[in-house]
Write a structure and sequence with these properties.
The protein is an alpha/beta fold. The protein has two domains: 187 residues, HUPs (Rossmann fold), CATH 3.40.50.620; 92 residues, Rossmann fold. The strands form five sheets. Strands 1-2-3 form a three-stranded parallel β-sheet, with helices on one face. Strands 4-5-8 form a three-stranded antiparallel β-sheet. Helix 1 crosses helix 8, helix 3 crosses helix 5 and helix 7 runs parallel beside helix 8. The longest helix is centred in the first third of the chain and has 16 residues. The radius of gyration is 20 Å and the shape is elongated.
Length: 297
Amino acid sequence: MTAATEPCYRGRFAPSPTGPLHFGSLIAALASFLDARHSGGSWLVRMEDLDPPREEKGAARRILSSLQYHGLHWDEDVLFQSRRGDAYAAALDELDAGGHLFSCDCTRALLGPDGACRGRCRERQGQLAAPAATRVAVPPDTRIEFIDQVQGRIATDLGAHVPDFVVKRKDGLDAYQLAVVVDDAWQGVSHIVRGSDLLDSTPRQVFLQRLLGYPTPGYCHIPVITDGGGQKLSKQNHAPPLDDHNAAANLRAALAFLHQREPPPALGTTGEILAFASRHWVPGRIPALLSIAAACP
Ligand code: GLU
């Protein structure tokens, strides 16, 4: 198969430095890398270091080093979200000028199970206790639809399910939903390939893109790997860090998870495996599932 060159393809991998890279995050990194390289596009890495209390010292450096060990070399400089506060503030000002924001001092106990304030605080602006979070209001008739390359057509009545959500946290930190949208637009990201655990967030992100006048990228949510008990492999669940000295075998296992063509045994280096895999990358072979139970290499 020859690579179809999409001149404007810009993909990205956006890890949070809450721990070292594990097999689940390698699968997401590899899928976004191969989709970009197969299309002749750029592949960027963005460090989502927005939440210092959840971060692990040295994790950002370890993640970048693991990517290099696996031959996943990125284009351009790594963007660190911790340095992007001014851009998030400007986006918040724009949303505020459009009348989309309100402050909310609800405690967790007052919020519904969906985490929404449901406009309760909207009527009490000016009499709120400090500190307050900033929320964006979602009009009740908001419907978001998009075609996901793996999961198919996704249609959500966002206004009915998510009446409002946080764009700046009570503790003063910028919220993931806003930062990801601002940075994807600023970096010109055209295609987002990531784990299906984020599929739930995508309608909120598309909603913010529309309010801010940003283009909506193409989306591809791949299944996440779970252990025998159905738990997603994650840093929170103490997934074992990748063994960087076993990089070629890790890549082969990740390709098998993604149901891609097996590189011939003679291909031994990460570079050879990745060159083969990007030539033969077929996203249509990825199972249209939200999760798959599999063993780590
Ligand atoms: N930083 C997020 C994570 O590590 C991923 C964000 C994204 O890909 O949009 O789960």
